[in-house]
Amino acid sequence: MMGMNDLALREMNIVLIGFMGVGKTTIGKAVAKKLYRDFLDIDEEIEKEFQMPTTKIFQEIGEKQFRKKEKETIINLCTNQRLKVISLGGGAFLQEEIRNLCLSNCIVFFLDLSWESWKDRVSMIIDSRPVLQGKNSEEMKDLFDERQPIYEDHHSKVLTDNLDVDEVASFIVDSLKTAWDIYEPNH
Asked: Are strands 156-159 and 84-87 parallel, antiparallel or unpaired?
């Protein structure tokens, strides 16, 4: 198992966290392209394995099995692979083991979005997010607020309100390159 001390900063996986619908997948793909890395969306990896969408996995197999597979997938990626950009599902970081592993083996960026900006996106994402099914606006706000403190464990935070995908991706890449130059100037 590789730990932060064993791996050069430049080789570490980059993990994007944040509430569902914040743009982790879209931004992650843009970051990966700019850094010439492979991109992996954990939810998509699980969907491939079960050969069904996340909403169906939740309905037919259950959230508990989904979370178990999510943990196995993340542990494998974070301990056995490098040079990846990884998007975690909105609920993955709720699991302490996942949170601790990502923080010690990867560079974690929290993509933050205000409730007001997120509300504008809900109609586009609600059908593909099983934990939003059947919830009213107040219940969604409660879930949003409940998860925010979990995301506060990170290495860097990007407030994505009023920024487009390329602006966020460029900010992440620029901050990574600055950190690499400061902490590993001779690589």
From this structure: unpaired
